[in-house]
Write a structure and sequence with these properties.
Blueprint: H1 8-23, H2 28-38, H3 43-54, H4 59-63, H5 69-76, H6 78-81, H7 84-136, H8 144-171, H9 174-181, H10 187-208, H11 213-220, H12 227-241, H13 246-251, H14 260-265, H15 270-330
Helix pairs in contact: 1-2, 1-7, 2-3, 7-15, 10-15, 11-12
Pfam families: T2SSF
Protein name: EpsF_2 protein
Domain Type II secretion system protein GspF: 14-132, 201-321
Length: 332
């Protein structure tokens, strides 16, 4: 039986409840069994997860088929820093916020999509019924075939560009892909804030758990870690072999927020730096949420502007020639 990913709301409820139970002293297996009563639809999957824990399998591998890949990568570090309850509660709160944002996006797009469907329906009725009758009356109408050819060429061009972009994307590793996404207009800032939040959160949890920077670098370069983490760890190890200082290597790692330079420059202990990283993670998440809200506020006006341009274009293509023909008929 193929395993399906849980809905976003289920993922958020699961992680928030699991974190609360672990924080209140529940063992991981007992907490998962308790969650079964709250999420009965996931009872079979949770039973499988508990059985896998009995066999010694890590939690992030057992949850990977049911949660987003990003969450599975974050959970992989829980076996290192041991702060599972804090991490899963943070994931639960974050996923609830993300769920609210996606719901708001659907609400904002509902009305423009309905208008576009109605507009397409009117366009279809005009071309199917009204246009042939006007042509039978001798009215001179625009040749829609030319427009069809133009639209077809545009669609073909977009498909070719997407195909070439997909080939280039597949040839890049995850580090190069994320660096490329950070340069894309509009979404680049969102990607940068999201990566900064996740990396700051994980580094904060690791450092405040007493794990040194050298251990973090060594652990990140292991073969069983996620691809992105493995690439970053390998790059850090290369810098150490070249004789660079450990903190300089961490500071020069790509994707880390620029604020990290100030955190390491203070000369604090690694425990204090970890606490600063956790504060930075919360700040990055607040900025990310604020940026998403700003984009959500402009999506609907942009959609209405596009619909308005489409209406004006259809008016110029269809109705103006028809009015011109009516004027010629009136002059006879």
């Amino acid at each position: 039986m193929k395993k399906q990913q849980w809905p976003l709301k289920t993922q958020a409820d699961f992680f928030e409840l699991l974190g609360q139970l672990i924080a209140n002293g529940y063992a991981l297996e007992r907490a998962l069994m308790t969650v079964q009563g709250v999420l009965p639809k996931q009872r079979l999957a949770l039973t499988t997860i508990v059985a896998g824990l009995h066999q010694g399998q890590p939690l992030h591998q057992l949850l990977a088929p049911y949660v987003r890949r990003e969450i599975a990568r974050e959970l992989a570090f829980a076996s290192v820093h041991g702060r599972l309850s804090q991490l899963v509660m943070e994931i639960g709160r974050r996923e609830h916020r993300r769920l609210r944002q996606s719901q708001k996006l659907r609400q904002l797009l509902l009305y423009p999509v309905v208008l576009l469907v109605m507009l397409a329906g009117l366009m279809g009725l005009f071309c199917t019924y009204l246009l042939p009758q006007l042509q039978q009356m001798g009215a001179t109408m625009p040749q829609l075939s030319h427009w069809g050819v133009g639209v077809g060429v545009s669609v073909l061009t977009c498909c070719v560009v997407c195909w070439l972009g997909g080939r280039i994307w597949r040839r890049r590793n995850w580090l190069q892909r994320l660096q490329l996404l950070q340069r894309v207009p509009f979404i680049g800032s969102l990607v940068q804030l999201s990566i900064g939040y996740q990396m700051s959160l994980q580094l904060g949890l690791l450092l405040t758990s007493g794990i040194g920077l050298a251990t973090i670098v060594k652990r990140s370069a292991t073969a069983d870690g996620p691809e992105l983490v493995r690439l970053l760890g390998t790059q850090a190890e290369r810098g150490l072999r070249e004789g660079q200082d450990l903190r300089q290597v961490i500071q020069s790692m790509p994707l880390l927020p620029s604020e990290c330079q100030h955190l390491f420059a203070k000369g604090k202990s690694e425990q204090a730096i970890g606490e600063d990283f956790q504060i930075l993670a919360q700040r990055k998440f607040e900025l990310l949420e604020r940026q998403v809200q700003r984009y959500l506020m402009i999506i609907q006006p942009v959609c209405f502007a596009v619909i308005g341009l489409i209406v004006i274009g259809l008016y110029g293509i269809m109705l103006l020639p028809m009015y011109r023909n009516m004027g010629e008929l009136m002059t006879w």
